[in-house]
Design brief:
single chain; 5-stranded antiparallel beta sheet; elongated; 30% strand; 14 strands
Length: 291
Amino acid sequence: MGHCHLWDVLKESLKKQIADLKLDLNQTKFELEKCSEELSAIRNTAENRFVRARKLLSRGLLEDAAREFQGIVENFEGTNDAKIASKELVKLDATIRQKRIEAERKIALGFKVLKPTTSVKYGDLSLRFDKLWTGKRWTFDDYGHQYFLRDAKRGNSHVLARVSITSEGNNPELPPILIYQMENGVLNKLGVLAYEFRRWKDYGSYLGNYTDYGNDFSHSKTIPFNCGLELSNEELKGKSIYVVLKKDGCFNRVENRFGQPVVEYSKGSCESKQTLKVEDFDSDYVLLKRL
């Protein structure tokens, strides 16, 4: 009998502990819900919604920003905050609508909407393209009475660019000049032009006997280059060819005392898209010319 009584006492004690734990748990849940509601209220004050909206605008997330302004209008009706948010919403709606119209126009016109340019500026670099064309002969490294040339093989041609590059820095990375072919509404990459110096002061500077300051950005702000890429006539003729620049450092200055010339710009590890769509030209890519 003593054991049974003890067991009954233990059971009652456990029941009470469980009941107390349930009460504590329910109270904790209630307090958590209350805290969550308070945090949500703080998070969704007009002031905090304005802060979030402006951050979203700075990132170009217009529709998300519009939702924040709409939340202020709906939840703080009749206040000065609601009036300000309503004005912002009107301006933002107009911007979003205009962007949609522009996007639809781009889709309708395709790549015809892009305007070629011969001048590009980004970062510390300014590029001026004097000429973009195709030809059999690519000339470069002119040192006065002689120059070097590269003739395209039979059935091939060079895509050529004559460009002057101005740099605010002393040792810039040069951007890739790319060739794309139009096919089925997208541009497919054929290759990237190589950089060669247009001229040297004389033969001695070409050989590296002494530095040609005219081909060194640490001494000259602007340097002229002749660029080229050999492609088959089959790829070029009868096709829409686009010469494109990507605003990204790619070619690096390297020195090789056994080279001729001893200084050159060599392609680094930069990447360019294999296929381009119209929207790619909104930021990183620039159309230079249609050939």
